[in-house]
Structure formats: C-alpha cells, structure tokens
Sequence to fold (741 residues):
Amino acid sequence: MKYKNIANCALASCLIFPCIASAAEKKGESTFSTLKVADNTRQQENDNVGSDEETYSKPGAFSSRKINKNLQSLDATLRTMPGTFTQIDPLQGAVNVNIRGMSGFGRVNTMVDGVSQTYNGMAPSSYHGGANSSSGVLIDPNFLAGVDITRGSSAGAQGVNALAGSANMRTIGIDDVLLKNRRAGVLTRFTVGDNGLGRSGMVAVAGRSETFGDGGSIGGLLGLSDNVQYATYNNGAGTSSSELFGSDNNYMKQKPNSQLYKLNLNLDRYSKLELAGRNYANKFTRRDITSDDYYLKYDYTPLSELVDVNILLSTSRSNQTYDVNSLSDANHASTTNKSDAVNISNTSRFSLSDYDFAWQYGGKVMDTEYTRAYDNSAEKVYNTFAPAGKQKISALYTGLTINKAIYQLDLNLNYTQSRVSGFKPACAANQQCFPQGAANLRLNDHAVNPSVAFSAQVTPWLQPFISYSHSSRAPVPQEVFFANEGGASMNPFLQPERSETWQAGFNLVKNGLLLEQDSFRLKALAYQTRIKDYISSQNYYLCASGVKCRNGEDSDPNFKANIYTNSLSPVKTEGYEIEASYDVDYAYINLSWSKQHTDQPTSIASTTMLGFGYDDLSDLPDSYATLDIGARFLAKKLVVGSLIKFTGKSKRLHPEGESIDTGDVPKDDMPNIPTVIDVYSSYQMTDNLLLRLSVQNVGNKNYAAALNKMNQDYNYVGDDGKSVNTTARGRTWVFGGELRF
Fold:
C-alpha cells in the first residue's frame, strides 16, 4: 500500500507541473532554462587517460569507461569499476555483467547502444553430453567506444525489469572515425598477443556529407572485424590449459567475425535518424553461433524546450546450432532467441519562478521468445536443454527532475507488466502437480517501482547525494520451464523478485588541490539492498503421497526435481564503493575499490555435477581494487603506466554438489588470489598512428580468477578435492594500435 501511495504522489507531481507550465506559457509568464550546447569534437586518446568526467559529475552510483585504452579485455575493463564484475565462462564466448552480486536473466539490464540484450548461451560441456547455460552479450570489443554502468537505480527505460542496475555498451560512431574537419575517414585497430591470446583486426570506414538544407546531413559507417583466439595457454606455473580442458580442446579455439553498419540521416537541425545493424558469427564449443541486432533511432528536438522526442525500435535474433553428438540427448539440435522492442519517450523542460524542471515520460515494450529444435523421434520432456517459452515486458515510466539553486530532486516511477508463457507437459499419475495434465501456462504480474534521489552542490567542489529505489525482475522461461523431471519440475507459481535499495555518498571535484594545474576527483558511497522473493533452484523429491518434498526419506529414488522457487526470507546485500582520480598533467593515478557482503542462496541447478550448470555463483569477492598509475612524456605523446589489481577473499560453488545434510549447494573459499600487475604504454607517433604495448600478469602469478565458472566444476578439481586447476593466463605480451586517416 505504501508504494501505491508513493506512486500516486509521483504521478500527480509529474502531471501537475507540466499543466502549470503550459498555463504560464499561454500567459507569457514562463521562462525557459538556459540551453546547454555540447562540443562533440572527439578528443585525442592521450588527452584524458583517466576516467570519464561524467563519473564524478553525475550524482549516484554511476561509472563510465572508455574501451581499448590499455589493451585490457572487456572482462578486465568492467572489473575496474566499483561494484561491477563479470561472470567468466570459458565455454560461452559472451560477456556477462555482474552488478553487486547480481547477474543475468534481467537482474542486470545489459544493453548495446541502448538495446536490451536477451541472449542465453547453451554450451556443450567439454567432458560429457550436458550443456552449461549462461546469459551474456555477444559483442566484438573492437567496435566498442565505452561502457556506462548504473548501479541500484530503476529510473527511465534502462530501469525497466532491472533488479540491480544496468550496463550500456556504446559502439563506435562516425565521429570516432573521422578526424577533425574531415568528411571521410578510416579507423583501423589491431592487436596481436602471445600465450594463446591470438590476434584481432578491425577496419571501419565512415563519411559525412556537407551540411545541406536547414543544418541537415547524411553520413554512414561500415566496420569489419575478425579475431583468432587459440585454445591453449600457459598459466603462471607453466602448465598448459590443455591439461585443464583435456587434450582434445580444438573446440575451444574460436574465430569470431563481426560487422557493424550505421546510417545517420539528419533531415534538418531538429530531426536525427539513425539506422544501425550489428552481426556476429562464431564457431565455438561444438556449435555455430550467430547473432544479428538492428535498431532505428529517431530524435526530434525543435525550438521548444517542451519537446524532445526519442524513439527506439529494435529487433534481435541469435541462433546456436550444435554439432552431431555434442549433446547426449539431442541430435542436430538448435536454439533460437528472438527479441523485439519499442521505446518511446519525450522530455519537457520548463521553469517556474526559481525552479527548473525536466519531465520525462514514455513507454517500453519488449517481446522475447526462446525456442529449441532437434530431430529425435520423440520429444524428451525430461530435458533441461534450452527451456522454451515467451516473455513480454510492457512498461510506462516517468521522471521529474527539479532544480533550484544548489539543490536537485529526482522523482521517478515505472509501472511494469510482465507475462511469461510456455508449454508444460502432463505429470505422471503418481506425481501431484498443478495443472495435472498438459497445459499452456501463462504467468502474469505487475510492479510499481518508484525511486527518489536528492543531491546538493553545497560547495563548488562537493556534491552529496542520497537515493531510494524500488526495482523488480520478472522470472524468465529458463526458470519457470526448467524440466529435468518434465512438467513436475516446472513452477507455475513463480513470482518476480523485488528489491529496495538505499544509497548515500558524495562527489568531490577539486582543481588546483596540490598544484596549480592538477585535478582531483572522488566518488564515494555506501548502499544497502533488500531483495524479496529471490529466485533460486532447490532439490525436491517425490514422497509416497505424490507430493514434492524437500526431505528425501522414503521417496521415489528415480525422481529428483530441481525446481526454481522464491526465497522465503529476504536476501540482503550491502557495501561500500570508492572511485578516485588525481591528474597532474604529466602523471595520473586512478583508483577503484569495492567492499560488499551478501547472503544470497545458491542454486542446485548450478552444479555441473548434475550436468546442468544453469546458474553461476555470483557473489563478488569480499573486496577488490584496481590502481592505475602512469606518467606522460614527450609532450604527452608517450604514456607509460601500470595496473595493480587486488582481489580479496572469493568463493566458488562446492564442486561435488549439494550437501547431504541441507540439500543446498555450499560455498567454498577459493585459494588466495595474489595481487596481479600489468604494465602498458602507448605512443602517438603521428596524428594518424597510435601504438600500444602491454605485458599482462608481468609477475607470472599462478592463480584462479574469481567468478570463473570452471573453478566450480568437479571435473577440474585436483586429487585432493580442494585444488582449483582452472588458472588464469601467465605472463602475456600484447601489441596493438590504431591508424586513422
């Protein structure tokens, strides 16, 4: 009830203020806020090696990074952000973003150019016919310009059906290719590395016409990228990964290739249209993977601060086709994921007395469908391979930003309707379930998610902020229609997860702190999250009465269902996050640090011992930090630096599966992870040519990376039952560069 009251107040505010503004305008009494004109000229790479300025100017838990700065992988770049990590699955080839211990299946709204990604990988295991499942994004890092992370917020379209936050990966555009004052240009990127890292290359061609009409123009971009990553590497102890994955590991070698297309049509200075496409293809882990994404964006900003219309139409399709006999119970198998989305919004800006307002309102609809096919003579209902089903998310959202003097208040609200539908086969006569017979299930739910944030620029250099956010995440077909025991292991009563998050912190921006030309930036915050109805899977047995029960005594030995259920007790997460930067023109230091704790339960379907591997352990290390320190020489053309990576205590799922006493999967402590040091350099030889060199894990440390799915795999545990053999790469050299002309 209290959330409905908050929602009603927020909606009333959002409706009343524009009406007042409209009435005032008719009387000639309204005044418009000052227009801000942004300079879109692309800065040279060596102008700002540190974090993006928006990280420290935007209140709340927000971080931004540029890609391809230090020859780090996308996983490594994401792990340099506070409260942000990745789930590494060497069998998938996708990037899975983790925010504060939450990842996948909508817990993090992961986007590419604002388009939500719904890909779910199903990789055949390397040692038996099962399949490991993991959500993620199929993206070529060569096409990325940057990534933005928002933690704990449910504002706007990015907060729709996002429990813990959002990640938006931005691809390169025409301005990233063209040199200043040029109408056509070429951008090439290349890398080559030893120790199995392979090589990659990308070329992008772009052009833009002279301005025509009323500030209009037309431009286009075409990018092609190709990569080779080898199957084996040596760890810090000199052991080849072929001993970890088995001698027949050619299935681990991959050659992904990608294409990127963009067409920008500015009809005049007020109307901007962009049509874009992105294709990805790979042969990896005994399957052919393809992914195609297309979107149409339209922005209309006439000479009225009451109108700023944004329209995004997108369609995505991914497919996985499996080699014969790569799965134990399905031949000539394939899975397909299709997702279509529409997002429309408008922002009105106006002023009343000493108050400035920005009112955004819009709606988003997203339809996602997962299908599977294989040519067995009979459909196997006792099969966890790629559960099929549909999910539809419909949402209305609105937000009002109020500014007066040094104060800013943000009121946001989204109303979301979710529907998950699919087929449930009949249960056996001795199994009590609902419905008993075969049926097409439809789970409908709705959520009202308000949020409020307040900040104040109390001094020119200090901006404290505090926020409250309510968010939700609907169950997905992979959870509702999980079917290791057919219809008896499906849950037609699964409820959405609901989260409350409090955040408090401050931004500090100070120029001339120690020296006249230096700058200091700091973002520090604390957060606390409480999640109701957290979804995880547990074992259920078939008792004599036919009902499913947690106690396996006197039960049917041939029945053991892994059912996704809602947690009866709330899950709590809390932590601290710090991001800081100090730049003195000829040198810089960047720091990110996180400390967190969670009590989220594990899922029995996560265990590869059972052949499912559906979920990963997503608990972040109790603390982790990255220190980036470097200096600039030769009029800033030469940059030399080092990344120092610290990882605290980390956990993994117990590789032998469930505890006999509790029936749950316990968490084991990982061996201590040493501090890993990378060194890097870049040299701007000419205005057109930039060269880079990096040595990763320069100390050749032997360690297992946190949240690597292979570390919880029974088949990769040593004879002592405790060792973690899936270790990271040892010392690795990487050389790369960019050429623009």
About this structure: The chain has one domain: 2-740. Confidence is low (pLDDT under 50) at residues 1-51, 717-722. The first strand starts at residue 62 and ends at 66. Residues 2-740 form a domain with the Maltoporin; Chain A fold (CATH 2.40.170.20).
